[in-house]
Design brief:
The chain is of the alpha/beta class. Helices cover about 35% and strands about 20% of the residues. The protein contains nine helices and ten strands. The strands form two sheets. An eight-stranded mixed β-sheet has the order 1-2-4-3-7-8-9-10, sandwiched between helices. Helix 1 runs parallel beside helix 9 and helix 4 packs across helix 5. It is globular.
């Protein structure tokens, strides 16, 4: 087995703009660069520190002259405690997937941008994988005037639709109703005590994830492809509002695209219509995590960023 590259990097601690302390890895080319790709991981217990993809992407980007900054956002891991600073005081707050709300990504991504600009980077690109792609769209919705020049959406997910498809309409409706009830009772921070979901989540975070009218619902593929109406709000509304150049990329064998990646991409193209700022691609032979295709992915992303510079 060929040895995987281990490019040098710096462990960086920084604060989200609401004071939550986060960590990331900054990979920099030998020759000073002013362009950097910030990378937002997905949910489900993800961490850039445990992912083999991190070094592989870094190797391809750095050798082409781009810096790379993957970091753990507040939704990393399943359950964790995070430190948050407010003035001179430091407190402990709930973190991890079990307690995250997707709109809090605005604080994390603004904090990452502030760090990178402080370090001298002027051309900032923002890439998100899986739920990280959803976060990029949510971030743009709440903060359309932000320091990032371009977006890369990798394998964006339909969490609400997948929950519906996996558990059926009755359980889907019951989970939504129970979550709403717990939130009204001010018990949204408690962990859900249902056979659903498979991983620990608070009622508040569960509702945030599966609510078809909520912030998570960036890629409502199930509704379009199966003719099911779950949401009342316009579909793909966050993506339609994006004005910055954006690359949408899926793996050919993405398991979370209802066994029809071309169909999902086609639904997205049709929904967005003539948006000259959007580009679409499917990476042959790649799964949702781009396993075994990381170097090809890194080269593709670097070429897209550098061509657009």
């Amino acid at each position: 087995m060929a040895k995987q590259p281990e490019p040098p990097c710096t462990l960086v601690r920084f604060q989200a703009t609401d004071g939550v302390e986060l960590s990331g890895l900054l990979y920099e080319p030998r020759r000073r660069a002013d362009a950097v790709v910030a990378f937002v991981h997905g949910t489900g217990g993800a961490s850039i520190f445990e992912s083999s993809r991190t070094n592989l992407l870094a190797h391809e980007l750095v050798r082409r002259g781009l810096a790379f900054f993957p970091f753990n956002n507040r939704g990393a891991h399943l359950i964790r405690r995070l430190s948050a600073r407010k003035g001179r005081e430091t407190t402990s707050v709930d973190g991890g997937m079990a307690h995250e709300r997707i709109r809090d990504c605005v604080f994390d991504l603004d904090g990452a941008a502030r760090l990178l600009r402080h370090r001298g980077y002027r051309r900032l690109y923002l890439a998100g994988h899986s739920t990280g792609a959803n976060k990029v769209a949510v971030y743009d919705h709440y903060k359309p005037r932000n320091p990032y020049r371009r977006y890369i959406l990798l394998g964006g997910g339909d969490d609400s639709g997948l929950f519906y498809a996996n558990h059926g309409p009755r359980r889907f409706a019951a989970a939504l109703a129970k979550a709403r009830e717990r939130i009204r009772e001010r018990r949204g921070h408690e962990l859900a005590r249902l056979p659903l979901p498979a991983m620990p989540m608070s009622w508040r975070s569960l509702y945030d994830m599966i609510n078809p009218d909520g912030d998570y619902s960036v890629f409502p593929f199930l509704e379009v492809m199966r003719g099911i109406r779950l949401s009342r709000r316009p579909r793909f509304r966050y993506l339609k509002a994006i004005r910055k150049p954006t690359l949408v990329l899926y793996g050919e064998n993405d398991a979370y695209c209802y066994d029809d990646v071309p169909g999902c991409v086609a639904a997205l193209v049709e929904a967005l219509g003539a948006k000259p700022n959007f580009e679409y691609a499917i990476l042959a032979g790649a799964d949702h995590g781009f396993k075994g295709k990381e170097r090809e992915l890194g080269g593709f992303l670097a070429a897209w960023c550098l061509t657009s510079s």
